[in-house]
Write a structure and sequence with these properties.
- The protein is of the alpha+beta class.
- It has a single domain (12-167), classed as GAF domain (Beta-Lactamase, 2-Layer Sandwich).
- It contains 4 helices and 6 strands.
- It has a 6-stranded antiparallel sheet, with helices on both faces.
- A hairpin with a 6-residue loop joins β2 and β3.
- α1 runs antiparallel to α2 (33-47).
- The two termini are 22 Å apart.
- It binds methionine sulfoxide.
- Residues 53, 74-75, 78, 83-85, 106-107, 109, 113, 116, 132, 134 line the site of methionine sulfoxide (SME).
Amino acid sequence: MEEIRVSAAEDKVTIYQDLIPQLESLVEGEENFIANAANISAALKQSLRHASWVGFYFLSGEELVLGPFQGKVACTRIKIGAGVCGTSFKDNKTLIVPNVYEFPGHIFCDADSKSEIVVPLVNDRTPFGVLDLDSMSYSSFDSVDSVNLAKVAEIVAECFSRRSQRVNGS
Ligand code: SME
């Protein structure tokens, strides 16, 4: 049975330190990308108590399409350059939004969302999606999140590249 040990720590640095090696183990030996992305979103949501929604959007044609996530039902398609996700993807840059009401064009999936962080996913210098976290509180995300979620994005990219190498990538 796959499971993770949720950190009892209160501080985010320790929570991420406990979590990241477990994410690496969780995806080891599994080549199905969707299965790995689904478990990573679940492990992040279980561990990061400051996040109300954790999930992926992946590039599909000209837009980002909802991937595996944990949380409330969300919008399925986001145009490149639109909202926090589309802007992060277009600029290939992590965006920390302390107050979503102050981000021009923010897309509300959940009326209770107050702050957000979006981290681009890049494989071999090609962007292929974003990792998105929302919070019900203002200013929930900071540089501790951006540094550690960049490490999570690397794990996701590694899973994506393994998937890409398969001829009939299932
Ligand atoms: N708020 C995001 C949309 C996705 S949801 O938060 C899950 C945005 O502005 O891109």
